[in-house]
Amino acid sequence: MLRKVEENILASGGKDIHLPESFRSHPRLVALANHLFQPIFGIDISALEDFEVPYQGMKAVRDQPPRNTTAEIHFVPLEDSDGNRINAADARQWEGHIIGERITNLVNDGFQVWDRSAEEWRPCNYEDSALLLRTFTPVEIYEAALKEWDIPNMTYAGKGYFGRQEVMDVINLLKVVNNTYGDLSLAGVLCSPLFSVSDETLFRLRSKSDILWEAMGGDLSDVEEGQKVNVEFARETMSDLTGLVGRVRVAELAQEALARTGYLATLSALPDGRRRRANVEKLLEMARRSDRIQLDEFLAYLGDLWTQEVREGEAVVEVENALRIMTVHKAKGLQFPIVIIPNASGGTGGRTPPVLARPEYGVALKLRDDAAQWQETAAYSSAKVVESRKESAEAKRLLYVAFTRASDYVILSGRRPAKEGSTDWLSTILSALELSLDYDGEVNYPGGTLLIRQHEEPLDLRERAFGARKPIITLWDQIAEAKHGTMAGVAALGPPLVEAVAIDPLTLKTEFTATELNRMLQGEDGRERHFQRYIAGLPERINMVTRRRPGERAPAWIVGEITHKATQAWNILKDEDLVSRMVRTWAVKEGLSDHLLINDAATRSMHLLDRFKASALFVDMGTAPTRRHEVPFAFSLDRRVIHGAVDALFRSRDGHWSIVDFKTDRIRPEDVGDRTQEYLVQLALYQDAIEMALGESLRVIVYYLFPGIAIEVDKDKLREAGSRVEMFFCDLDP
Description:
Blueprint: H1 2-11, E1 21-22, H2 27-41, E2 59-60, E3 69-76, H3 88-108, E4 112-115, E5 120-123, E6 129-133, H4 139-148, E7 153-156, H5 165-178, H6 183-191, H7 199-208, H8 212-216, H9 225-242, H10 250-261, H11 263-268, H12 273-290, H13 295-307, E8 310-312, E9 323-327, E10 336-341, E11 355-358, E12 362-368, E13 374-376, H14 378-403, E14 406-415, H15 425-433, E15 441-445, E16 448-454, H16 475-482, E17 511-513, H17 514-520, H18 526-535, H19 556-568, H20 576-589, H21 595-613, H22 616-622, E18 626-637, E19 640-651, E20 657-663, H23 672-677, H24 680-694, E21 698-704, E22 709-712, H25 715-732
Parallel strand pairs: 1-2, 3-14, 3-16, 6-9, 6-10, 7-9, 10-14, 17-19, 20-21
Antiparallel strand pairs: 4-5, 7-8, 11-12, 12-13, 15-16, 18-19, 19-20, 21-22
Helix pairs in contact: 2-14, 2-15, 3-4, 5-6, 5-9, 10-12, 17-24, 19-20, 19-21, 20-21, 24-25
């Protein structure tokens, strides 16, 4: 596009005026930019495509800096010292540690940057640095690393706090309560975990009326029964909340909305649930601080904050002295003394769509073959080559923008490229410098020096990014050392004649899952097993999934897992062909690859499901007017939060509620009673949570999939197990 515009201007009598002077960067950094980008972009216009632009060199206007080194590149290896491949998340955490360490050292060592207002060199501060991201996907990893290094930071634009899905869900709910005719917000909140309305149901509602809210109150006879319940609950809930608008404060309104929907409990059951809950609770705190009664005023207040496109990281000093985090696109037109470009070996992560269309090649598409697999046509393959070159050209321009935001120093980091000829930013730079992928050391170029560091010996993955510069202190280290009056890595304080008080770190823990409490209260070694499973992350067993010898069967634990998943897919249990395909898919996801083992696992799982479908419990659940699966919960007990999810909850035809917990233990029928004793604490907490929510008593049933036996748990035993949790919390409090 730029080339064509330039040609049109010249053809109409215009002039090509090149402005080579750079007033931003010092001469050595300008020389490095010229040295890199001349081979990256090329200078021969005849060898370039219409969408490629030749590089035009820059000339520095500023004085020389007090050092030769102008940039540094840090490579994280593909494998650790044991030859295990380092995954992308671990690599980024390690990058975050490297970046945090380098920024800290630059500030502590008084690294000199140019002060434009004072026109002199001075020691740098945190606010002189900017971390520029190609995409915002990994931003939380780098924020966490900066927090670990006590580096204050502010994140601009991108998917900030108000872009978090859980925050948007609650804001959409408040918008609908304020105005039920806002169809966009209403559609968003219906499809969210708040009400779990499916896209199909939303389409059916929208086809009935131009006004979605009115459609929700109309005829729902063609809506699937479970979805109909969700729609009715959504309308009832939002109608009730609308009646509170203007009568209670916004914070109280939002609290009531969360209580009615059980949203916080739902978030707890989702991946990264703790962070999601914290984000919603932060929104509640904002509502409390605003102290507003008028909902429209509070929504306008949130809109103003959202428009600013800025959120603070967890700064430990004044925000005015904070490192900035933003996308490269957001940084266009800006400049910073020090620019950090992390994840420079990563791409955008996008996939080529099945249909491509441009004026130069028309429309090209992929087609499905007889096996329903996508296949590229010749036209599509040719078009994809063009798209690849355009993406490469755009990536080069974006790298140039990121690099030239720096006035004094540039730091790049990323994984070492896997092979020569890759098109990521770091590979592009190495190619321009004519260096091998494993080069380590200084690079002298005309005008200055570039430093390249290969980090060959990674720290342990658990220590690499967070806490790598501090002693590694585990929960159980603290317990052991507390007995001697000290905490791990911390000298004892206080008068020498006063005995230090031993502190159990569990007293600081504010939330527990029902499963981990069950484990901790299970025998004398409960805490140790809890540590191994939940703190150290050790598996309960080494799960073998590969066939070692002829005739070996699929592992029983996989059969149990896929059968357990099938019990949650209640609506498809009657379709044996579909269930058979699903359990085979789940078996593959659990790690099976041998088709004989997959078939064996599926056959045995189907046998267990047939046994379950022949049971009285299945009949009771199948005929129940109300039935829910994977029911999340959260409740407070003695200032602590207990959360989890119940496998199944149903109300039988006689009106009684029952909890069902499916167990995959491979045990003999005569051992069912003894094994159930081991789950009493977990089951008691399930019972307490659901009874508090329903306001009614209920039965607790455990169904063991392998022996195919259902057992109703004695209420007195559950009551005694629940009291053990209360006593445990009392013992934790000083």
